[in-house]
Amino acid sequence: MQPDSRRQRRMVARTALVGVILLCAVPFTAPFAAWVLPAPMMAVTTRERWPAAVAACTALLVGGFGWNALIFALAAWFVGWVAGDAIRRKESLYVPLIAGALTFIMLELVQLAFIQAHGLDIGQQITRWVSRMWSDWAHALDGLDAQRTSDALAARIRLMLPASLCIIAVILSALNLTAGRLLLGRIGEGAPSLLAGWRLPMEVAAVYMLSLPLLWFRSFETTSVWWQCVNTIAVVAGFLIAIQGMSCVWRRIKPEHWRWAWLVLIAGIVPLIPYGANLYVLLGLVDMLSGLRRQ
């Protein structure tokens, strides 16, 4: 890399870091900027990362995060350190992806604990929110049916909350990794792509297949912790296997510049197609089995 190009890359990375830190100091944007703070942390040097973490902590304090500011700043420093070194060394990005996802899950739990500590019950808040939203749609139902439907929907959301937190954490980790690679410029170009090299171990497929009969035959009481665990495992494993299916298509699309257009298209269309996501789960299972056969 030429000196001018290296200097320009560092300037872009520092500008992005300063911009995100400034957004963290604004109460309106801080709840959003805090989740993308690891991305510019990946692109700066090790010596710059600690002062950046201190500045981010101060900005989050100004933005109203309270004692959570220190936790978010340390988490951003940790993910930036792990992922930034992996990208520079051209290593597999799955270790930083997992480390980032676990860190984001921890941050989500910290936020939920913070909300709970302020006297807000998450379950009750979900029920109230669903009731308020459902009241605008349920004019065609009588009062009893509307209440039953609202309660069932709120129970479903509470049931899916752990799985949703895990999926959001994986997505946030992947987005930060992708943004970090882009900010690193040519240094990040040699690092392996997340989708192109996505290879799940067969144990994920085995866990997914074992969880499905437990769901179909309702092996546990629907109000038990075990039922929620089985639902969480099935949803998270299915999500990861669906990514395997997307990776299978991604590797076969030529030319490469069409890949991102396809990804945006899929993200917009698949939710509108009945059982569209299940098709990618099936494709992911087939891809995993074909990979096992080649081994």
Structure report:
The protein has 295 residues and is an all-alpha fold. The protein has 2 domains: 1-118 and 172-189, no CATH class; 195-295, no CATH class. It is built from 13 helices and no strands. It has helices at 3-24, 30-33, 38-43, 46-62, 68-88, 94-117, 122-134, 143-183, 186-189, 202-216, 225-252, 258-269, 276-294. The mean pLDDT is 82.
Keywords:
about 300 residues; mainly alpha; globular
Tell me briefly what this model is.
It is built from 13 helices and no strands. With about 300 residues, the chain is an all-alpha fold.
User: What is the count of DSSP helices, taking H or I runs of 4+ residues?
Assistant: 13
Compressed to H and E, one letter per element, the order equals HHHHHHHHHHHHH
Provide mean pLDDT, rounded.
Answer: 82
Low-confidence stretches: none
Instruction: Bin the helical content.
Output: over 70%
Radius of gyration: 22 Å
Distance between the termini: 38 Å
Into which percentage range does the β-strand content fall?
A: under 5%
- Helical/strand content category: mainly alpha
